[in-house]
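REQUEST FORM: STRUCTURE PREDICTION
Request ID: SP-0412
Submitted by: Lab K.M.
Chain count: 1
Length (residues): 134
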Amino acid sequence: MKTKEELEVNLAALKLLEAETGIKHENFKQQVQDTEKKLEDINKPVLTPAYLDKIQEAVEEGVGNFSFDEQDNYDKEFGMEYDGKVYLESIDLTCSYELVEKIVEQVHKLFVEADCPEDDNSELNTQTVAEKVI
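STATUS: Completed
RESULT:
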């Protein structure tokens, strides 16, 4: 895998080549898009499909632990039609933060938080940390 600097240089060269020659070939465009995607993903932790499944299961468990049946979790507005029928005009989940909290709580159980000294301004290699956790 290329380093961030190599990808940045490669991307700049591809863009310069495309601009100088005036050629708008799909090959150059695709190479630029691929390199931009690799550059975007360079600091993301690498996870196996099995671990991505574990994250999905954790999210599902977090959602499953939320009480969607509790009426106090919603703001409801009712309306009435001309013939006297009452209908639900709108419904809003008022405690979405609790749902997010339950999901995050389950996902956090899958990881170990890295120690990051506050006075250290160097970049943390998240791929290395993720590999150590897995």
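NOTES: The chain has a mean pLDDT of 77.
Reviewed by: T.R.
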